[in-house]
Amino acid sequence: MSQSDKYRHPIKNARGLGSAKDGVHHFMVQRVTAVALLALCVYVVYLLVSLIGSDYQAARAAVAHPCNATLLVAFLVAMFWHGQLGMQVVIEDYVHTPWLALTSQLVVKFVCALAALASIFAVVRIALGA
Amino acid sequence: MPSTTRPLSPHLQVYRWQIQMVTSILHRATGVILVIGSLLVAAALLALASGPESWACVLGLAGAWYGQVILIGWTWALAYHWLNGIRHLLQDAGFGFSIARFVSNSWISVIGSFVLTAIVWAVVAWCGGAA
Lengths: 130, 131
Known about the structure:
heterodimer; A: 130 residues; mainly alpha; 3 helical TM bundles of succinate and fumarate reductases; 5 helices; 0% strand; B: 131 residues
């Protein structure tokens, strides 16, 4: 770093470069997944209630039905995505220790991604009759 | 978890309790509860994919008294977050911001969540008991 750079305010480097263009991305994805979940949650609760009293084979057959399998995967993607976005905001608001904030954000992202992959894998496995 | 000794701006303890605070806090609380619940959804689906024994284990847990308590609480958390989520989406669209409307639709979220929970569990009972 040269001597003159020390007196240059960081904003001098940012000016004129425009925004990063993804300022509302989190906001938009949170709302798009929310709208999807409004419908998908009603569907999942209906599916669960309709399965009351059915045995293992009937439950598997219901999940294996192409319509249910498709909607369940859509539900799982929207749910874990929406959940990660929400937890991100909660952590941003309440965890002020930098290393702990970064660590918990990573843990939430990894857990949500893994849970989404595992549950989608389970639905696909049932749907394909394995 | 502040890492500094800087003074913080006034927080919850200095405000008189009002319904608008309750809806905001409950939305976050139920959101966190539902994230934990989403992990149970993943576990249940993996159990269903694994075989009859693990699925029987899920049904056993869901049918136990503590399972039923968790399921009813979970239903309420979902009902509340669902209803108040609609409220938030309408607010995003610019509706319901006058103080009187804001207070009344807060009450709709809170009371409605219990009504929805009661409806769902009435249907569950009518369908012949849970799980």
